[in-house]
Design a protein that fits this description.
It is a single chain. By secondary structure, this protein is α/β, with parallel strands linked by helices. 37% of the residues lie in helices and 18% in strands. The chain folds into three domains: 85 residues, Winged helix-like DNA-binding domain superfamily/Winged helix DNA-binding domain (Arc Repressor Mutant, subunit A); 108 residues, Rossmann fold; 118 residues, Response regulator (Rossmann fold). It is globular, with a radius of gyration of 22 Å. The protein starts with 5 loop residues before the first helix and ends in an 11-residue tail after the last strand.
Length: 372
């Protein structure tokens, strides 16, 4: 049984969170992402025995509750198993697993950007799985654990020595990485990129139409008398937001009427100046961050302008008036498999960019909109 290298793990952990990993994200999340990425990439091999929780926590200088939270999330995803006699054991996909579960001609690699205990019940995962089964294909699932480099390395390995017939990936890679993958991709190997469009690079993609969604949200506010908007996103999401920014600016008279706020997790935003300016959150994490800011302010729900959120129908939202732009994850998943199957059947058409439209749902809470 392989021995767990605690020093190597600690080094990787610090790379995940920076020199002071406590400052950038919750510690348990650093541990979860790092350990999960090392398992998925094979750095921690299948069957490796982890130290006892007590020894592991002591080596990291943390309490066992924090460690336990991280390990439980990974265990819920099936990458760790607890054996009463042997302790916690790594359970990752191996070549033997692949051989048993299906043949190369039927296996499709499906790579998500991250995985949680709810991933395998999510609308997107279920839609992709069911669509593959309906086409007599099988899923070979993995996660990048939030690491773009790990995702790039995994796909590059697949393209150079394929163990499957195609790949669907929720991309967190940068343009240079995708460009390199498209250069080495075999002509008849379908690679379907979800979640974002890499401009200037020919590739098959299925994405939410974020320009259109932001445009619809902007029109909603303009029609109610607002002439200025504020877009809010984490600093680490700057490269993922250009479609939404363009969509919002398309409805404004002057691009300067859109204020951009980029924040770090520990920042505090005073919302007093935004009592009369609509806010647009880039994602649910930002929406929850704004909710925390609202909680610390003296604004009441009665006087709040609805905050725009781009979401899916099953997302849980904080108790705020929210202008929801709802996307269908099921449609995204089904369209990605349809495109993959077309390529498997020999379609040589130009690379396709399929866009899934969002639908506006106005807030159920009655709110008082005040014109500027």
């Amino acid at each position: 049984m392989d021995k767990f290298d605690i020093e190597k793990f600690t080094h990787k952990l610090r790379l995940t969170g920076g020199s002071d990993y406590l400052s950038r994200m919750p510690l348990y999340e650093c541990i979860r992402r790092t350990l999960q990425a090392m398992i998925v990439s094979g750095e921690i091999p299948d069957g490796c025995q982890l130290p006892s929780d007590k020894i592991f926590a002591k080596a990291l200088g943390i309490n066992h509750i924090t460690l336990g939270k991280a390990l439980n999330e990974i265990r819920n995803c099936g990458l760790l198993i607890r054996n009463r006699s042997a302790g916690t054991i790594v359970h990752s996909l191996s070549q033997a697993d692949i051989s048993i579960s299906g043949t190369k001609e039927k296996l499709v690699s499906v790579i998500f950007d991250d995985v949680t205990s709810g991933t395998f019940q999510s609308e997107l995962f279920v839609a992709v799985h069911n669509a593959l089964v309906a086409n007599n294909l099988e899923m070979l699932f993995s996660s990048s654990a939030g690491h773009a480099d790990a995702q790039f390395a995994a796909i590059r390995s697949i393209l150079l020595k394929a163990n499957c017939c195609g790949c669907i990936v929720w991309s967190i890679m940068n343009d240079a990485q995708v460009k390199e993958l498209m250069q080495i991709k075999p002509k008849n190997f379908p690679l379907i990129i979800l979640g974002r469009i890499h401009d200037g690079i020919a590739h098959d993609s299925v994405c939410y139409d974020l320009f259109d969604a932001a445009n619809k949200a902007g029109i909603y506010y303009i029609n109610r008398g607002y002439s200025k908007l504020t877009f809010v996103a984490p600093c680490n999401k700057k490269e993922f937001v250009k479609e939404r920014i363009a969509g919002l600016r398309s409805v404004l008279r002057d691009p300067k009427d859109l204020e951009l706020i980029y924040y770090d997790e520990n920042d505090i935003l005073s919302l007093d100046k935004y009592e009369r300016i609509p806010l647009i959150a880039v994602n649910l994490k930002t929406l929850n961050w704004l909710y925390q800011m609202r909680q610390s302010s003296k604004q009441t729900i009665k006087h709040l302008i609805p905050i725009t959120a781009f979401c899916t129908r099953n997302d849980l939202l904080p108790p705020l008036p929210v202008l929801k732009v709802i996307f269908s994850s099921e449609e995204l998943g089904c369209k990605s498999v349809e495109l993959l199957v077309e390529r498997l059947h020999g379609s040589q058409s130009n690379y396709q960019k399929l866009l899934i439209k969002g639908v506006i749902h106005e807030p159920a809470v009655s709110t008082e909109l005040v014109s500027q």
